[in-house]
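User: I'm preparing a small set of examples for a lab meeting where we compare how different chains pack in three dimensions. I only have the primary sequence for this one, and I'd like the structure in token form so I can line it up with the others. Please keep the answer compact; I'll paste it straight into my notes.
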Amino acid sequence: MDLSPGELQFLSIPDILRESISIPRRAARTFYFITLILIFPLSFAILAHSLFTHPILRQLEDHPTYDPTETRHQWTRLLVFQFCYLIFLFAFSLLSTAAVVFTVASLYTSKPVSFSSTMSAIPKVLKRLFITFLWVSLLMIIYNAVFLSFLILLIIAIDTQSALLVLFCMLVIFLLFLVVHVYITALWHLASVVSVLEPLYGFAAMKKSYELLKGKTRMAGVLVFGYLAICAAIGSVFGVVVVHGGDRYGVFTRIVVGGFLVGVLVIVNLVGLLVQSVFYYVCKSYHHQEIDKIALHDHLGGYLGEYVPLKSSIQMENMDV
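Assistant: Understood. Below is the structure token output for the 321-residue chain.
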């Protein structure tokens, strides 16, 4: 990023997107390998998941069997596949985040960048991201419990034909998804960047993320909602054409459309990771928290086993610009 810290706070959403898209050109070879080895498998798994689970679900629905052994076998297959998918998704999501955030920060501090150095730093970065993810997961469990409670209440309201209660539940469910879910996602993404670039992780990273989002919550909401909407649109088209389009579309059409959509999702995920990295610097600049590039350079070097001076923080907080 060629902009000064003072200029970053004035970036609009289009400016952030342009700045994010321009970053890979500064380390094309590194981002090529990150995209090919980490982001492509993640994107492929997200879309291909329904392609592999659909036949199992259709077999359970269209060919019910009274044989408990066969039914148990089908459900076991489904659950094992789901478990492996979640582990794969979780692992590559953290790996992709760690690689992109570390590489962008290295470029920001003029630190030499290579794919090998990025991969060497990932093991230590991954541990911090994992702890932060556990805290975010706890928050998501609470959110899902509340969401499920209102969903059950909505079903009861429909069953009892209580129009007022139905309207209230629908409004709460809509707000929970549109506001709370989007906010938690933004909090998680920013906390992930904090976990890599600052000596904070877990609950401390979430608290820092909460503080950084103040004043930029609307912008974060638009960015996250836009990302989720694009991913949902890609998933919907993939489901209609590739997964369920066997009777209407030929094999060649489905392969071409599927490959194209995987490619689009790869680009969307890469840009999304770059945006969350740039957005961190925008938030820091907005709160007048200038980043000490020398300290950040040393902090990143610590992941590679380099000498790290005794500093308790990588930033000089609350400086006047």
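A couple of notes for your slides: Residues 5-316 form one domain. The chain has a mean pLDDT of 84.

User: Perfect, thanks.
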